[in-house]
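tRNA (guanine(10)-N(2))-dimethyltransferase
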Amino acid sequence: MVENLSDMLGFYLSGEHDTLPFSEVKSILETYGLPYEEEIRVKQLLLIRTDERAIDIVSRRSAYTKEIFSVEGIGKTISDVENLKIRLSKSFRVRCIRIGGSMRDLSCSDVERKLGRILLSQNPNLRVDLNNPEEEVLVFLSDMVVVGKSLKKVDRSLLKIREVSARPFKHPSSMGPVLARAMVNLSRVKEGDLMLDPFLGAGGIALEALMMGIRVIGIEIDERTAKGAQENMFSYGFSEEDFKIICGDSRLVKLDEELDSIVTDPPYGRGSSLRGERLEDLLRDVLENILSCLKRGGHLVISLPHWLDARDIMRDYNLTLIEEHRMRINRGLSRNIIVLRR
């Protein structure tokens, strides 16, 4: 058991990836200068001590966070948390969430009933409301048992309106909104900052940046695709004051602006065209041209195929590797999400 749980927040994360959701939360906190101490990380749960401002900021920004809660108790077994004293002042219910098939010997409905009875005995003036409670006690069955009070549910369904299939202009290699948003968050940019995507494509990454109040420059070599990306931006309510799309070659386009971050998904795999170029050569030429515009301390977040070693890029351009995440695309191809700092 962890003795001191004061100021500890819990983040219930999507199980879509093993490492990205954890890194995304911490990147968001770093972006806004919110200090944190990582206490416990278990399957789909990040428990950290941090500023309460994180509740609003992470719920607005995160692609992978499902719910945020105050941590009330932690134990190895359900018996470790059954006698917790949880302060409640309104109608409540207990909701049990089993993560990844953990603790199959426990019945969630039994856990909810038992803890509900205990809480009623501690708070005899309260009532249980299963349909519309004013407070909700959460019991997570993961690698450990974690008990919390729900503070904020994140409506991830809003991401669906920006799915590739929902955009007016579609491209077979377009990145979906969840990963695109996470990559922008990993680049540690906030409202008003300037981000570049030198391989804009249909604009999936740029669109998520715009949704978070970040200014965007996108470079796209194909005129039809550049116009399609612009159409996508317009369809979600953005104007030319919010973004700039340059139809040109990222190896040649000269930028005057100082960039806060570069976030991109260069072409590779099915549905992508390199126009006869080797990806390694293309990347080197593009970075040679644009990297000097990235401010010192700014981040480059890039999606690369698993067979391309980012260490060569780091060496050649004096970049520091912050983190790397492997994602499987299909049977024959995986991508690495790489975060570098200048």
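thats it. The longest strand covers residues 294-305. Residues 53 and 74 are 23 Å apart (CA to CA). bye
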